[in-house]
Amino acid sequence: MIKTITVRGLTIGEGAPKICVPMVGETLLELKAEAAHLKTLDLDLVEWRVDFFEHVENIGKVKEAAEEIRAILADIPLIFTFRSVKEGGEKEISGEYYIELNKLVAETELVDFIDIELFNDEKEVRTLIEIAHGYGVYVILSNHDFENTPSKEEIVSRLRKAQELGGDLPKMAVMPTCAADVLTLLDATNTMNEQYADRPIITMSMGGKGVISRLAGELFGSALTFGAANKTSAPGQVNVLELRRVLKLLHANI
Hints:
This protein is an alpha/beta fold. The protein has helices at 28-38, 59-73, 95-108, 122-134, 152-164, 179-196, 211-215, 217-220, 240-253, and strands spanning 5-7, 10-12, 18-23, 45-49, 78-81, 113-117, 138-145, 169-174, 202-205, 224-228, 238-239. The strands form two sheets. A nine-stranded parallel β-sheet has the order 9-8-7-6-5-4-3-10-11. The protein has a two-stranded antiparallel ribbon with strand order 1-2.
């Protein structure tokens, strides 16, 4: 049986996939306006994509922004994500600072999740997970392939690896080049969910071809989907209002 995760009254891993919307503001002013707008929408979680933030390399300003965002979002679960360039992010930072940034933000307890990329040093990943858990912060252990879609076996292998390392929410995002690639992602998700997962997982096929994967998670086993309010943080994200409408429709008929 898949274990669920409950954060601030939201249970991930049961019912329709939960909707997360990214914040991509570059300045503190933009982030505060974005947070205020997101608070008015029908969403479940917010992801702060801190790689868009102009002061991301100043830990003091990152903490200040986190405090402001938390104050506005109040009880909405918050994911803290620095996405590296190699996995589709906006900026590059040193590996040392990446670890330090996530460690220090987890210690503030202002966020509910940190997103750590699976293909970092395994020892450092395990250490970060241990630190985050010590502060009651969950870890999304993620991998993004913006070039293609690996084989079903490889997708399942990476998700299992994320689970074995202790990630609370293993995540895999891939880019399809054809309809068959989307089916591969959905098949891998279903297999992982039915045969190996002991916790919620997140998967998606990106771009226009992969939109169906962002909608059909409840059927195949993806517990969380990413929607957009204004600017998207990844190709294929659906407007949050349309996304909620479709998820409700599917949930009512599954």
